[in-house]
């Protein structure tokens, strides 16, 4: 697949905000083709041959790191995982030191997860590699939004006009922010649903409708996207208890009944079963597309690596 | 010391409303006379002002300095160099240092270090509470005897209402003000930017703008209760200014200052994660900036202070939420204030008054004017001379200017302290 315009003109993927619909559409098309290849068991090991991809994770992650690792390996890159445990990160000073180290290693593609919003952007100013944000604080998680969009598109045909309800801890969710930017850019109708203590200030200015009641928020929804409720949020007093949260905002069979009969259920993982989602829903093959999300994750990350590598080849 | 005449200047004295061409004659470090066609004394040194503006040296009500305790960021000597380059001749410094200035010996130490620079009057605030911890009030009487100019916990809010009440009551006995950093600490805890759309987009923890107004409302009530003088530093929101305006109308001893970032920048300056624009209080939406300009115009704001806070690269080259808040402001205080003059928001004399006579009034000191017999603390500046703020090329040690890249009109060309030239060729 070739494109007549640069898909990621900065040479990085730091955020969904700022990407235009044609860019998003092109990434999804490319990802779709990789999804097909993956199902056929075909690989393209020459595409990133001789390139070094470093997974730099300042926060624990299993699925995102593994997904990038697999994506890089399927395209032939040398993949290295660097985990920097939180305890050893003395604030962000090491971020700049790490950048110096990575430059010396001639890293081509750098996948970064960090607990601080803006950390990948800061790194991108200091490293020569192309930087992919794999989740920064409460800011963005762009590849998650791409894989969610691809999953929805495959199930529903198009994103345009769909009603997507994003439910739970929106305040602390980078997944929600990236999804809001992507889905509104593609003309989906986005709702966010949660208790007021977990809804960010001025959220409606992001082009979404805000609901504090699941029944109203899920009414007529095509997609129900549940977010992970971080356990530490409860100790912060933002919600009084997990049982109260589950009672009013956890997705169970009854609440799902308020959405469209063919509504799909999504979750970025890892799930807190019995807190934001009932196991009966999470494991229901008729409604849950959580497994497909993981599959599309690898395809989307291959597409992003491919697009960034085209620029690497151009510069080489 | 030879007599000195600064000739051919535009004399500006906000205290009297003087704005006229003329000369100014200095003898023995004092202003001997000023006016047009002064007789030049035999042997006097002549400085040709070439029509530049000559005004009282600026009085900066609020600067944090690294000394004592954080000399790697800024020393008193380096801050003094930056201040005189900005036309400042009197600098009030915050007491929340390491250790905090809560002991007469420490106040005297800072005074002596200021004198040693030989170029500036350094006036230390003393801690309002011991160790600036907000619990027990400090020894106000002894601290005043040592040279403290007023009381504050600096960049920390006095959060406990009873402590603030005691501070205002007790300071009243000595006729001094208590300066508050007006931010409700519990509500603001952990925040990095003003709460709202931008903070939501950037995924940054927010500080609601109401954190400022509610602290000001509380302290106005305490001023009413105690009769004490509360002064609010770096006021930045429309709601807070409305409260202060009403308290002044009521006749309470309530005053305030603001700082250049709050009338020159708005929150969009933090876009792209610019940590140099991370300040405390955080930059606000445009509507608040406009309210600050309006409060400068109508006199609700009593002074413009630099709110100088030095930081080094290790403090600022971090993810936004982890970076230290605060920006330098000494060298840009006059230039950014003059931007409001050039922009048509403030008459020149009114703007200069906010930097000279009015802060002098708050401190109760006979400085900040071109009076005969007063110390010859002076600034000479070219009103229309353009320059660009460049972090890395500013005078002084700390370079973390929120105005990095800003083009300004109005540049200091000379500063005199007690008749001695301390800046400019």
TrEMBL record, chain B:
Highest rank taxon of the organism: Bacteria
Amidohydrolase domain mapped to chain residues: 290-423
Dihydroorotase catalytic domain location: 53-237
GO annotation terms (biological process): purine nucleobase catabolic process; pyrimidine nucleotide biosynthetic process
EC number: 3.5.2.3
SUPFAM superfamilies: Composite domain of metallo-dependent hydrolases, Metallo-dependent hydrolases
A Gene Ontology term for the protein's cellular component: cytoplasm
A GO molecular function held by the record: allantoinase activity
Record's keyword terms, sorted: Hydrolase, Pyrimidine biosynthesis, Zinc
Name used for this protein in its record: Dihydroorotase
